[in-house]
Amino acid sequence: MSLDPSPLSQHIQLAIEVVATFAFALSGILEGARKRLDAVGVCVVAFLAAFGGGTLRDLLLDVRPFFWVKYIELLWAVFVLCILAMLFMRQRHFEFTERAIQWPDALGLGLFTAAGVFQAITMDMPPLVAVFMGVITGVFGGVLRDIVCNEIPNAFKDHRPYAICAFVGGWVYIGLRELGCPAYVNMLGCVTATLGLRVWAVWQDVRLPQWRN
Amino acid sequence: MSLDPSPLSQHIQLAIEVVATFAFALSGILEGARKRLDAVGVCVVAFLAAFGGGTLRDLLLDVRPFFWVKYIELLWAVFVLCILAMLFMRQRHFEFTERAIQWPDALGLGLFTAAGVFQAITMDMPPLVAVFMGVITGVFGGVLRDIVCNEIPNAFKDHRPYAICAFVGGWVYIGLRELGCPAYVNMLGCVTATLGLRVWAVWQDVRLPQWRN
Amino acid sequence: MSLDPSPLSQHIQLAIEVVATFAFALSGILEGARKRLDAVGVCVVAFLAAFGGGTLRDLLLDVRPFFWVKYIELLWAVFVLCILAMLFMRQRHFEFTERAIQWPDALGLGLFTAAGVFQAITMDMPPLVAVFMGVITGVFGGVLRDIVCNEIPNAFKDHRPYAICAFVGGWVYIGLRELGCPAYVNMLGCVTATLGLRVWAVWQDVRLPQWRN
Lengths: 213, 213, 213
Known about the structure:
By secondary structure, chain A is mainly α.
């Protein structure tokens, strides 16, 4: 995913991606620790949370190599993050960490969604499929994390807008593209819409309506 | 999957497939509602139930595009079904719906199994693998639905013939093919055997033998 | 996977692989029986335990045909094993079986890990990815088995070295390869290290350190 050819913006983009991946990995480390998994379990759940969504998208779209094979440094970085967390993070840090990662997590949701839509559009997928690929990239890391931890995925039951932000953001991408905007505008629009909606939803404590009985 | 070139039978076949897909999707909507998932969760579980089995088969056989990419209308239709169900279906409708979908579900099991065996045979898979692909197509949508809802898959623990009907139906396909019958006869035989066995099992309340201690 | 061209060692290798696959399948049969699954569930869980790890590796590496398509006899053999187990195995045999399969299971862990690393190295994957593919091949059959049985995977929570043995064994493979050793030496080293570590861990009842609060 390359928004702009200038070296400075590339460095900024790379930094944002690393921060977002770390936020996703940290959500996995926290859940693994809560479930009292051992060191192996914590690492696997962190990897699933960080790389699961993009890997599932690439499996479905039949894309190789996976991005974590192309950017092997990211795999090492998450591995080191897991070890550092297990060495230095204690239960009293959990709540603070969870609140702190909400913001990079929202950024990650936006970036991963944009990357997923972009990838699917490049392969001439129909708009609805492209939007779904965006949502899968942004959301299914957390879904796989929760399935392995033997929970109903949080994204499906906490009645807060999360996947829906990605869904709307995906359609913003498609809409801008229909208007003839270049790829980096579409992506920026998608990231902004997803991130904005998510931040607004967290800030306002928005709830999805209940299924009425 | 095309049983016959005449336009009338094609329309009938398409109608049956849509009904079967809707039955599978409804089973997902019901389970999602029972588990009190939010709107996103209900949709995801409905999609998994309707499209999960065929998608897993295509992943294993390395077939692209997925059938829900080729028939994008089906994806939209299930999406609309989910929204209508969430707007208009109430808990008092659940039991009736569950009983009502048993029959289209049995039809879907037959159709999806036949489609799975056909696909694998076309790719020169050995008979046992082809039969397994049929069973996966018919059964694993429900399995994925149950895994996401944090249940042991119903197909593996309710001691009623379900996957076994698909397994027998798959061998009927293989047997007819060995006898030199054309593809549409094999498929009709497979659908009839699977559907008949399943209807008989539901009607007679057949139980699989328990593991003796 | 072929360690050596001589017919005798090939026969020995094949025999070891069959024993290891059976050990993995038996672990699935036992867990299925414990969870009181029906005949279908027991078979599916046995197949997942025996073939799930290698299948997931091949999905990720985009390798076809799967090894259970190439060696269809192995699929039949596990199928027969399931039926025999359901006919003749009773609850009083479970504990003995579980203890007895620890050793072939450790062998399977070593062999499957070596096969996974070998496969990934053949496809020019970076070392860390190759080691992960080895671990996935050895460990994820059991992980899928536990997910379907609605448990947190044992490999992630029992605080005993299992995946870690495979991880170390994978690096032994990479290390020997860096030293210029031929493939069969690398594989032997990997199997020996993984098996040795696992046997030592079981024998000494080694525990991974707890996450300190």
